[in-house]
Design a protein that fits this description.
With 148 residues, this protein is an alpha+beta fold. It is 27% helix and 43% strand.
Length: 148
């Protein structure tokens, strides 16, 4: 598989921008774990990535440190419209200005994240999306993207 065409990536980014909360799943020796996170989608080097804030010393943080593979789902609660994806999560090593810049972009897309990043011990995580499926309506074929 190859990197999708720029138009397909832009369409996927447009679809992701309709959401600001995703269910983010991790896995570890303890088993799978899923929880809600605020996120901001963006294009970086012709790929999609999600900016997320994760609580320090949380299960999610520990799972990502052991196994960076994650999956996510965005849905308005409507079975005919949703987005699922998978990717690799990393905790970038950043100085304070870099960390604050990621949080600024996160809060710019997901204003509800402000109380989270301003009041809790969190750090940024970047999810490099590897696969994405977008279902926009029942009866329409899903959009499937794969990033190698």
């Amino acid at each position: 598989m190859s990197v999708p065409a720029r138009g397909d990536v832009e369409r996927a980014l447009w679809a992701l921008r309709a959401y600001d909360i995703a269910a983010l799943a991790t896995v570890s020796g303890v088993g799978p774990h899923v929880s809600g996170v605020y996120f901001a989608p963006e294009i970086h080097a012709d790929r999609i990535r999600l900016l997320v804030a994760v609580l320090d010393d949380s299960r999610k943080q520990h799972d990502i440190a052991v196994d960076p593979r994650v999956a996510f789902m965005c849905s308005p609660g409507n079975p005919s419209r949703w987005i699922t994806g998978s990717g690799l999560a990393t905790r970038p090593v950043l100085d304070d200005p870099g960390r604050l810049e990621i949080f600024r972009r996160l809060v710019g897309h997901a204003p509800g994240a402000r109380q989270f990043v301003d009041n809790l011990p969190v750090h940024p995580v970047i999810v490099d999306v590897r696969a994405l499926t977008i279902v926009e309506a029942l009866g329409s074929p899903p959009v499937r993207l794969s990033f190698d």
